Amino acid sequence: MDEKYIRVATTIYKVVEQPLADGTKAIRRIPWSLSALRQDYGKGHIPPMDKYNGFCTVPSHTHYQKEIDGFYNLYEPIDHEPVEGDFPDIESILQHVFGEQYQLGLDYMQLLYTQPTQKLPILLLVSSERNTGKTTFLNFLKHIFQDNVTFNTNEEFRSQFNADWGGKLLIVVDEVLLDRREDAERLKNLSTAQTYKIEAKGKDRQEVNFFAKFVLCSNNELCPVVIDAEENRYWVRKIHPLKSDEPDFLQKLTLQIPAFLYFLQQRKLSTIKEGRMWFNFDLIRTKALDAIVQCNREHAEVDMVELIRDIMETLHVEQFSFTPQDLVSLMRNNGTKVEAWQVRKVLKQQWHLLPAPNGLTYQTYKSVQGIPNQFLPETRVGRFYTVTKELLKSLRL
After folding, report:
1. How many folded domains does the chain comprise?
2. Which domain holds residue 25?
3. Domain match, 126 and 238 both
């Protein structure tokens, strides 16, 4: 690469290709002083350079422009030229990762390539087993979208300095463990944010458009990230071990990328946009997601659901009314220790229920002493809550 310089606003940059450990190179823009240029070329021989009013970040893989209305585009082009052909190994890895949701997986890849600003669900690949191909899939994404993919650690994700990943298409974290609620809230907010404030050391924070998607991997199948019951921003896939281990598999995938991109350009999406993250949540909900949600439940909530479900099934009723103290008594008679404040917290914060506005008459149930799973109706007066079967179904427990 010949030496190239650009001037953005009043700052000169040298554009270089930085060698990486894997043998590839990454484009870097290094601030370069005018005095250094004069030392290198002489006072009267400053090299020609393109001039820009400032930076912008406009992603595109099919109609890429480096200069947009006088601004230098920080989003990097990918150097693959789509060519018609076969891609059996790419098809194999995608079928392995997405399984019965293969067509949805193709939609996901197609949207990344053709509509890079479209919000997409947080893709979380989990498996406690070895040799599952999770890391291979992450590296495959890197080979497709190149400098527009960044690998982060858990610590980097938590850092306040985020300028190095603020304008990327994909932020991937291998061996993710974001088990603090503040981590989960930040991840959720970023996945749907339209703008975000990036911050670099020694520089002021700057608000930019944010279009990055997250792909996470973890060996922890139950609690890699805090996911609440009502959350619909995650697509969790449990990945099984590969049948064989090919040492040069990633190289095979890379050679087939031009044919795969040609296929994505010609393919018709199997889904239509049904939400801010494109997919209808019912299409991407999996048992692996439900397992994580259940792991994050409080014990009091799980015990409450089990008891209420027992009452409804035993008495063949569609709903159950009670005050927190009613439920505490029922649970203690059932051998479960719980406090009224824990019940209220679940009812209000987790289930978003409101009590009756005034003390009204309601029918509830009490345990039959000495006989398990036997309940008798009882009429009482109070500010009661009502739980329905539909609510229990929505809780994924």
Report:
1. 3
2. 4-73
3. yes
The residue assigned the tokens 């018709």 is 268
- Give how far Cα 1 sits from Cα of 5, 18, 34, 144, 160, Å: 12, 11, 21, 22, 34
Most confident of 86-100, 193-207, 315-329, 366-380: 86-100
User: 290 with 303, same domain?
Assistant: no
Task: Tell me which of 228, 263, 295 is where a domain ends.
Answer: 295
Q: Please write the tens of the pLDDT for every residue from 147-178.
A: 899 888 777 666 665 566 778 899 998 887 77
Q: Where are the alpha helices (DSSP H) in the chain?
A: 34-41, 88-98, 102-114, 134-145, 154-158, 181-192, 249-255, 257-266, 281-284, 287-295, 299-315, 324-333, 340-345, 389-394
**Residue 55's closest CA among 14, 9, 16, 12?**
9
Sheet with strand 71-73: strands edge to edge: 54-56, 71-73, 67-68
Please check whether residues 337 and 189 belong to one and the same domain.
no
